[in-house]
Write a structure and sequence with these properties.
flat; 25 strands; Immunoglobulin-like; four-stranded antiparallel sheet; 368 residues; five-stranded mixed sheet; mainly beta
């Protein structure tokens, strides 16, 4: 067993030092300095940094017709001494779409970010939009570019809200006027329902380049539906520009039997807490049933609660307007130990399309 003295000189270290002295002793000091001058700049280059700059921080694109699509370029520069990594460019509006984006910009170089602006997605009037560019520039990792644009609305409609609504079992139609808002006027080259949910029956020029009238319609439906579909118009203005402009058409096929609430009747804790008070007379909620079909009267045959213990609820039906309006009063009389009770309110009528209606009923407790 050997004990090593940590303070004793190491023969191996002495030998390495001797070799180093022998090697450098034969190299002139001038050559050593030249080597250091070559190595030091290489090390310094690794400390370079990229620097992002926009050609302009803000642009003004002037006025656009609503529906006009333009493509623009944002030129970016790297004023640093290291390659600039471009991570992403994010518009703040769905009206702006990035078409092309460089991945890198060399030191002292430049590149282009191409983007489009779709004015039909911008509300008429003056507006400011932006694009945020994210890079590895340590001082400005997120730099925002702004552009201003004015959007010109070519026309308005009368009525302002285009609506096709009525009983689901009946076809619906309406007439819409399109009235020019500017001296540019407009000529309608084509018109359509974008998704085919309604039909454009006719389009008529009332006053040249200024007023048109369209008739649109929709067929009946076998179920209640509420949706909307754009009315697309291809328009040419006096200066020759052509755009496609859309206006929403609201479509509503109404159930002839309107029930409120339609799906869920809920007794929350704020309701059931009243049952903890002595001499409480119960907590009530009302379900209304209204027939909006003037050609047919409605009869409520029966109303029952299913899925609840006996004696927890009471149900009372009142005919408020004969054949038209009914009120169903549901009263909760007992506070329960269960956290939640669930069941159904089943309503039987003589409605031809859907005689049986079911509403989910829920009561919350949990205070005991």
């Amino acid at each position: 067993c050997f004990v090593v003295n940590p303070l004793a000189p190491n023969p191996d270290d002495e030998e390495r030092g001797a070799r180093a002295t022998f090697f450098f002793g034969r190299i002139p000091i001038v050559q050593i300095l030249l080597i250091s001058l070559v190595v030091i700049p290489v090390l310094a280059d690794s400390d370079g940094t990229p620097k992002l700059r926009f050609e302009t921080m803000e642009d003004d694109f002037g006025d656009l017709l609503q529906g006009e699509l333009i493509e623009k370029v944002l030129r970016i520069y790297n004023d640093g001494d290291e390659v600039l990594q471009v991570w992403r460019a994010t518009p703040n509006c769905s009206c702006t779409k990035i078409v092309s984006l460089p991945n890198q910009v060399p030191p002292g170089g430049s590149a282009e970010i191409r983007f489009t602006v779709d004015s039909k997605k911008i509300k008429a009037g003056e507006t400011r939009k932006g694009i945020t560019v994210e890079t590895d520039d340590p001082k400005n990792p997120r730099l925002r570019y702004i552009f201003n644009v004015g959007v010109i609305s070519l026309f308005h409609t009368e009525p302002a809200i285009i609506r096709l609504g009525g009983l689901m079992n009946l076809p619906k139609e309406t007439r819409v006027r399109l009235i020019a808002d500017t001296v540019l006027g407009f000529e309608i080259l084509g018109v359509r329902s974008r998704n085919g949910l309604f039909t454009v029956d006719s389009i008529e020029e009332i006053e040249k380049d200024r007023i048109y009238e369209a008739q649109i319609s929709v067929q009946s439906s076998d179920k209640p539906v509420k949706t909307r579909d754009p009315l697309d118009l291809m328009i040419r203005v006096k200066d020759g520009r052509e755009v496609i402009v859309g206006r929403w058409v609201e479509i509503e096929h109404l159930d002839p039997i309107q029930i409120n609430p339609a799906r869920v009747l809920q007794f929350g804790n704020k309701d059931t807490d009243h049952l903890l008070v002595k001499e409480s007379r119960g907590v009530s909620k009302v379900v209304t049933i209204v027939s909006i079909d003037e050609s047919q009267k409605l009869t409520v045959k029966s109303v029952t609660l299913e899925g609840f213990p006996e004696g927890v609820f009471e149900v009372e039906t009142t005919e408020q307007v004969p054949g038209r309006r009914f009120a169903i009063r549901v009263t909760l009389n007992v506070y329960r130990e269960e956290l939640v009770l669930r069941g159904q309110l089943v309503i039987e009528t003589d409605a031809p399309n859907e005689p049986r209606r079911v509403i989910q009923v829920m009561a919350k407790f949990g205070r005991l």
